[in-house]
Amino acid sequence: MKQDASDLHIAEGRHPTLRVYGTLIALENEEILTPESAEGLVNELMPSDLKDRFLKDRQVDFAYSMKGDGRFRVNAFFQEGTWSAALRLVPAKIRTIDELGLPPVLHDFVKLTQGFILMVGPAGHGKSTTTASILDEISRTRKVHIVTIEDPIEYLFSQNLGIVSQREVGGDTLSFADGLKTVLRQDPDVIMVGEMRDSDSISAAMTAAETGHLVFSTLHTNSAAQTVDRIIDSFPPAQQEQIISQVATTLVAIVSERLIPRIGGGRVPAMEVMLMNPAIRNLIRERKIFSIDSVIQTGIKEGMMTLDYSLASLVKAKQITQEDAELYAANPTELRKYL
Given this model, what pLDDT does residue 66 score? Predict the structure, then answer.
């Protein structure tokens, strides 16, 4: 926390290692971990009721809390037969959309009453933080019941105007799919699924959005077009026509996020924002997914933006370097045009 790191890695044969602003930094003042000391650290963090499962499954997810300071999402795993862990810091305070420097159009999501919104991008690039900031604003401004299904629970929400029920896979529900099967009986207005891991959870999330709920979830995809393809391809060919229809009907937005090194330290978000309009709905129905990017390019007045447009804006604002922008660009030629 003192070094503003996002992650801590524990593994034998190495110093404990932090990830600070995307870069790994070994804590060389600490001793190199032995198999025994690595096991001791991980064992100390892990809830006792998970140890049998860890030894059987060889990996386990859990949350570790520090009183008042924040929480850690922990993945403990075996590598080369020894205990290891990766800890992700989840700050105690949920920052607002504006504090995070996110596009103002995200405030519009807070007012929606139904639909399906996806946060996508690589691991460690802010999907959970962005989703939490939107849900927290909903909780602070609307009298609604928000139900989250997470593995493990990350950000802890305060009870404000809205009620927030947070369910953890393994402790409160058996799986994401099981949690989604029963969630509609819990009188929710807003549902957040931490991750859609299979076709069952994708299907249940879209059905919830179809039946008048606002549903948020995340996927490890790189762009809006790739996300639509991934959802459709998760289902067998015989079901794909029905899924295409559901996606075109329920999807409201896809936000793809990258965290880029900021000039002077820290990281700043660059975003691709796709908002559903008649043109994109028709492209999905006709399976012309590859043409979505061109509609996003022409939808800037509606609040849409391509990743390259977002990167160019950050370069012009002197928040990031052009070299870093080109590293993350979807199309470096388009980026240079914007610049």
Answer: 84
